[in-house]
Amino acid sequence: MRFSAARHWNWEHFYTVILKGLKVYLFYLTVLSLFRLFFLFWMSGYMGEGTGRQDILLALWRGGRLSMQTAGCISLISLIPSFLLHYLYPSAEKWSWRIIHGIALTALSVLYIASFPFYRQFRMNFNQMLFTGANDDLYALLVTMIQQYWLPVRLAGALLLAGVLWRLLMAWLRWTPVEQLLHDVRLPRLLRWLGKLAFLGGCYLAVLLGVFGGSLGWQTSVNWENAGVTKDAFLNEAILDNPQAIYRAWVLNQRMLACNGLDFTVEDIRALAAALAGRRPDSDDLDVYLQKQAQGARIDKPRHVFIILSESLANWPLLDKYKDIPIAGGLRSLIAEEDTDYCPTFLPNGASTVSAVTGVVTGFADANLYLTTMPESFREPYVTASAPQMEKLGYATNFWYAGPATWERIGAFTEAQGFDHFYSRGDFGDAPGSVWGCEDEYLYAQVLAGLSDAPSFNVILNASNHSPYDVDVEAKGFDREAVRAALPPEAQADEELLKELGHYWYADRELAGFVRDVKAKYPDSLFVIVGDHADRYNIDKTPPTYERYGIPFIITGRGIHKGTLPADSAGSQIDIVPTILELIAPKGFRYMSVGASLANGNKRGVNYGFWITRQAVGRADTVPLVPESVDGGPPPGIDQQAMEDYINAVRSISWWRPKYGPLLDASKLENRS
User: Fold this and answer.
1) What CA–CA distance (Å, rounded) separates 503 from 499?
2) Residue 526: in which H helix or E strand, if any?
3) For residue 153, is pLDDT > 90?
4) What angle do CA 199, 203, 204 make, to 5 degrees?
5) Which tens digit of pLDDT belongs to each residue from 350-375?
6) Which of 3, 156, 533, 620 counts the highest number of beta carbons within 10 A?
7) Structure-model confidence comparison of residues 251 and 528, the more confident one
8) How many CB atoms lie within 10 A of CB 362?
9) Helix axes 11-42, 189-211, angle to 10 degrees
10) Is the CB of residue 587 less than 8 Å from the CB of residue 370?
11) Separation CA 448–CA 443 (nearest Å)
12) Are 306 and 528 in contact (CB under 8 A)?
């Protein structure tokens, strides 16, 4: 290459090559949208009954927004080298466009043609089976694809499609009436500058739409995890274009590969599990140590049982020191009722919502395993899973989620773990909300409408108290100025904090209202209310550990009273279902759990990074453990060895059992990386 052949920068050269990039962007967005439309038409037999035009239009709209990301990525891959060659080696620029898009369109076409038989086989767009298949007998796979899926014919069709698309794209890039018009027309200097600014503004807008999936910011962005908002599984899969589906598969596979768990020997686990169960370490069957028998029902069997995982429902607004800030009136009034008890020393299962879901659904603590991606989680329910055990007591089991079924594979995961029914935003119609889910009042209305006289066990996961905090809480009655006046002077000007507190107020009001509505209609119901996690916002910029991470445990319903939970009770989310079972199950009822009932005297909780008792809280990864006072007094003493053994027992069991099964066999660790 001779540098003398390079071009000097000028505006005409700049907008010419950038305009080509924009044309490429529009071309791929159109192609991906047409691919999706034809896929929906050709595979329409996989749509569920009751799927209507509105659902299809929503899928096309949502998919189009998501494909803006894909089109943007492909455009960038071709624009960067072509832009450089345009200035450094002009004669090679056209080959850059041709070669890159020849490869890209061939790959897209092959993937598209392959997506039809893939969906028929797996009832999903491309998923982790791509990576699983890479470890199979490749020769056998090739023979199968030739014999069963007509690989040569499909490949020929894909190449033909790629050739047609390539020629169309090249013709589109050669069609330059806009460039010619801009070259020929001579405008006043001011108009030329305004035109340049408008062009740059359009480029900036295109970049934002590409980065954020058809949105102008992350708060409303569409990505593969939140794209599936229709009520139909087929439509939710069709929303993902093929590159997005492969990206999903890669991310989930990376999460699965990261599930190396913890570092305990078989001997460690046996001894720890035996100590936790209060028996001798005389069995290599881990399930022996998880077996429990209910001591006998303490309340009449409730008609409906609810576990409400409320988004970011921290415990600190319920503390006396914050009682004058009017954001938790609903829960405070509920706690004051005679049929309610409250444990203020409770921990989430992890730092994110998915950990709360896995803790309640499977009964396992967070142990560096991504349970919603592990193949083991989809084979059969774990023995500690909540839904099958509640089903033994005669309950239909339902999981209600405000957001899309595709988030963290929550729909498929909960059903694989034994829930009879899973309901998500796609089932609720055109309910207002954010990218994370519909507003709480609409979720609770759906749950209430779905109840009948038949007994049911319901896990409810809401989403309104989550960034971007875009519920119009003032329109719903939030008194911003009253809250502002109750804040410390240094916090009163923090408008973002006020917005966050307004969403806590909204979540609190709707939750308490839902409990009252259900009690009025079905007074023989039982509710457990917890946060999915805390640690999102506090008034204090450097809050104590207890205020930062603690969530409430509230239990209410017929038969519950002050003192149902002992004064020294504490726990974490793996203790929720054992608490319910010990309250309602008949004497001798057999169940399996890692956690223990708060009603039976459980006095400690542990999660991914912390432990808690009624008096103390601390990090679980320090040696020795360093207790901090819950009430702000002097640090209390703890039994170091007992707490360390409890932490290690919960973690080691929650690692081994879901990953390796019930048998404690050291040979299973031989090939562990």
Assistant:
1) 7
2) strand 525-531
3) no
4) 115
5) 888 999 999 999 999 998 888 998 88
6) 533
7) 528
8) 30
9) 40
10) no
11) 9
12) yes
